[in-house]
Design a protein that fits this description.
single chain, alpha+beta, seven-stranded mixed beta sheet, 9 strands, 19% strand, binds 3,4-dihydroxyphenylalanine
Length: 343
């Protein structure tokens, strides 16, 4: 039995010298010292020993157990140290590597132009209102004096969702909604930027989605001259202090009289390719709010008057940045978008 114990001692220490990971340490602990391990197996023969031999062998067995345990511990510590070092090595960071540049976005050219226009009107005491892109037929047409089957509806081919709901064809429904919400209070003085939708075949100058800014002012004694004054101020702030405006008679069902407004071109009126040598660029539709529109929204048209206008943002952005294809605004080509700085 003594030889068996000594042999076990030798074998265990020998085997422990050759192992390489901490899981094996645990396996060997079980193999040699576990309940069903080699040492226990040898000690099962203790009963057969004489009374003198038993304490001696018992002591030897304890020594062997201690030897193995100590070795196990030593090996375990050494392996863990090695494993930690290997992990540190694996996960080491090279702080001298150059960083990856973060892509910085910039604002969309339409956003830039909208913000610029908003600033101009905020400066004149207007506030910014919001409407819905999915709109009721009532607000998009009827409340604007465009009853069902009115021929002027043909001017705006529409995307209908149901009989009564459509993608708004212009931002003008915000006029009716705002006046309804104000419940007859004056002054009403809002602008409303937003997307609008029309059934159109997309090409360089047409897009089925585009952006408008609506304007509305209602109060006592609001006159056509106020409209002209506000639009002239707008033109001069947007296009330079020498810019002028020109009103041409037009027709919109929700205004009477109605006018289309041109602004002096950036060329100063001399004529260039942008204005096709006319010296003017057409920027908006406008007029005095039709009495029926005021009445439908709950305003007394004998007491109050108002003006309204709707301008196309893409048209202005295209002139301002010399962009020749309206689809550029909606196809989101980064090479295009990156040309607009963040001011
Ligand atoms: N809603 C018109 C359009 O989309 C533009 C317009 C014209 C708006 C005259 C107005 C206005 O507010 O008074 O063509």
């Amino acid at each position: 039995m003594r030889e068996r114990l000594e042999q076990l001692n030798k074998e265990a220490l020998e085997e422990l010298c050759h192992i390489g990971n901490s899981q094996l340490v645990q396996d060997l602990r079980v193999k040699y010292l576990g309940k069903k391990g080699r040492l226990t197996e040898i000690l099962r023969g203790m009963g057969k020993l004489s009374a003198e031999e038993r304490p001696i062998i018992g002591q030897l067995a304890n020594t062997v157990r201690e030897n193995i345990e100590q070795k196990l511990e030593e090996v375990k510590v050494a392996i863990e140290k090695k494993e930690i070092e290997a992990k540190l090595q694996r996960e080491s960071l090279d702080v001298t590597l150059p960083g990856r540049p973060i892509q910085v976005g910039n604002r969309h050219p339409l956003t830039l132009v909208i913000e610029q226009i908003e600033d101009v009107f905020l400066g004149m005491g207007f506030t910014v209102a919001e409407g819905f892109e999915v709109e009721q037929d009532y607000y998009n047409f009827e409340a604007l004096n465009l009853p069902k089957d009115h021929p002027a509806r043909d001017m705006q081919d529409s995307f209908y969702i149901t009989e009564e709901i459509l993608m708004r064809t212009h931002t003008s429904p915000v006029q009716a909604r705002t006046m309804e919400k104000m419940e007859g209070e004056v002054p009403v003085k809002i602008i409303c930027p937003g997307r609008v939708y029309r059934r159109d075949n997309d090409d360089a100058t047409h897009s089925h989605v585009f952006t408008q800014i609506e304007g509305l002012m209602v109060g006592e004694n609001v006159r056509m001259s106020d409209l002209k004054g506000v639009l002239l101020e707008f033109a001069q702030q947007m296009f330079g202090e020498n810019a002028g405006i020109r009103l041409r008679p037009s027709f919109f069902p929700f205004t009477e009289p109605s006018a289309e407004v041109d602004v002096t071109c950036m060329c100063g009126g001399e004529g260039c390719k942008i204005c096709k040598n006319t010296g003017w660029i057409e920027v908006l539709g406008s007029g005095m709010v039709h009495p029926r529109v005021l009445e439908m929204a709950g305003y007394d048209s004998e007491k109050y008057t108002g003006f309204a206008f709707g301008l196309g943002v893409e048209r202005i952005a295209m002139k301002k940045y010399d962009i020749d294809d309206i689809r550029q605004f909606y196809t989101n080509d980064l090479r295009f978008l990156k040309q607009f700085n963040r001011v």
